[in-house]
Design goal:
Low-confidence stretches: 1-23, 424-429
CATH topology of the largest domain: Elongation Factor Tu (Ef-tu), domain 3
Strand order of the largest sheet: 2-11-14-13-12-15
Helix content: 25-40%
Number of helices: 6
Distance between the termini: 87 Å
Structural class: alpha+beta
Number of strands: 21
CATH architecture of the largest domain: Beta Barrel
Number of domains: 3
CATH superfamily of the largest domain: Efflux pump adaptor protein, beta barrel domain
Strand content: 25-35%
CATH class of the largest domain: Mainly Beta
Order of helices and strands: HEEEEEEHHEEEEEHEEEEEEEEEEHH
Radius of gyration: 43 Å
């Protein structure tokens, strides 16, 4: 074989290398459209429920104060229990007041006897004075004695009435139906009606009961702005309805109405007081309880509501994915409002009627890429179901944290107001620490 025989293969190898170098890489496989389920936006009118941290108060709380001084003979009621109007609560020693009444009655009898004598004398003197058998001075003296005796009878009768009142004050009765607090003095103690120990207890009416809550200046401004823009329609004559959520999460069965709104804002808290009245026939509510008051009656016309699962949190705020007419997805920034129901949220701005919002398959959506619209529940059921389950389990916590923030804000307002009035607020740090700990969890 000649020495340069391998050179015969060189052109073939060179052509092969050139062909390989000039050939283009095969394009990657086209990614299939992500399957998604969408919700077509349809504005609708929805009711509005605004929650407030509230506290119950007796609709008629009466301080029981002794009107006369004396020794406390008996505490005649079960402390802390419900009492009826007219029921005896305390009994002071009545014996000194019975003696005073007897003395007043005796004085009245004596003065009536004087009046009888003066009347008879005047009847004898008057005709004799007309016949000039007696002088005018004798007639004047008889008339004066009669008038003085009449006045003395009136004074004696007033003392009898006063003695009867004082005797009646020794039996202290409940002025209202309600629950009676503990007795401050004990049996045998001396009650001085002119000192501070005249305060015995109090009786608080339970039915109906008041529920007080505060509306801040910012909340009022926001509400007025939404009403002016037509986003919020208040009820007719502004007759709002109030229902309560108790501390254990249960719904109080009775409904109430707003009965009072303070015309001015508090200089300490920047809020004004609102009071609702609710029936309390079973006495489930007691004064001083903290509850959540839901203010209802207003509506949002043409509101846009989407599932909370469709709203994502971006670096610049909230966003949703919207499917355009060409079948591609785009990112749409939105402004969210209040929660609605258990799983929805109101979109204040960013969406309009007819928009198709991605509600399932959100995790697979790529902005600008085509998507495939499928029936609900078919957009990658396994991963979507897992994501839904995780998000649904987090929704109650998210809502609870939001409610806790509102609770903390209202508790701080209440605490600041009470501290400015030099009232001791032992519950506030404990509750606030518990709420903060729960929110962090």
């Amino acid at each position: 074989m000649p020495a340069f025989a391998p050179l015969r293969w060189f052109p073939l190898v060179l052509l092969t290398l050139l062909a390989a170098g000039c050939s283009k890489e095969a394009p990657p496989a086209q990614r299939p459209p992500a399957p998604v389920s969408v919700l077509t936006v349809k504005p609708t009118t929805i009711p509005v429920s605004e929650p407030f941290v509230a506290q119950t108060e007796s609709s008629r709380q009466v301080d029981i104060v002794a009107r006369v001084s004396g020794y406390l003979d008996k505490i005649a009621y079960q402390e802390g229990e419900v009492v009826k109007e007219g029921q005896v609560l305390f009994q002071l020693d009545p014996k000194p007041f019975k003696a005073q009444l007897d003395a007043a009655k005796g004085e009245l009898l004596a003065q009536q006897a004087r009046l009888t004598t003066a009347t008879a004398t005047l009847k004898r003197v008057k005709p004799l004075a007309q016949q000039n058998a007696l002088s005018q001075s004798d007639l004047d003296r008889a008339q004066g004695d009669y008038d003085a005796a009449t006045a003395a009878v009136y004074a004696a009768r007033a003392k009898v009435t006063e003695a009867e009142l004082n005797l009646g004050y020794t039996t202290i009765r409940s002025p209202v139906n309600g629950v009676a607090s503990r007795s401050l003095p004990r049996e045998g103690a001396y009650i001085n009606a002119m000192s501070q120990n005249a305060y015995l207890t109090y009786v608080a009416a339970l039915d109906p009961i008041w529920v007080n809550f505060s509306v801040s200046q910012n909340q009022m401004a926001k509400s007025r702005d939404e009403v002016a823009k037509g986003r919020l329609v208040p009820p007719k004559n502004r007759e709002y309805e109030v229902d309560l959520v108790l501390s254990d999460g249960s719904i109080y069965p009775e409904k109430g109405r707003i009965s009072f709104a303070d015309p001015s804002f508090s200089q300490d808290t920047g809020s004004f007081l609102v009071r609702a009245v609710l029936p309390n026939p079973k006495h489930d509510l007691r004064p001083g309880m903290f509850v959540t008051a839901n203010l209802k009656g207003a509506v949002r016309p043409d509101a846009i509501v989407v599932p909370q699962l469709a709203v994502q949190q971006g670096t610049n705020g909230h966003l949703v994915y919207v499917v355009k007419q060409d079948g591609t997805a785009e990112v749409r920034p939105v402004i969210v409002g209040d929660y609605y129901g258990k799983a929805d949220i109101v979109i204040v701005n960013g969406l309009q009627a007819g928009d198709r919002v991605v509600v399932e398959g959100v995790l697979k959506v790529v902005p600008g890429q085509p998507v495939k619209i499928v029936e609900p529940g078919q957009a990658d059921p396994k991963s979507e179901a897992a994501a839904k389950a995780a998000l649904r389990s987090a929704l109650p916590l998210i809502r609870e944290v939001w409610e806790l923030e509102t609770t903390l804000r209202n508790l701080r307002l209440i605490s600041e107001a009470r501290e400015r009035r030099n009232e001791v607020v032992p519950w506030q740090p404990t509750i606030e620490q518990a709420l903060i700990s729960k929110a962090k969890s």
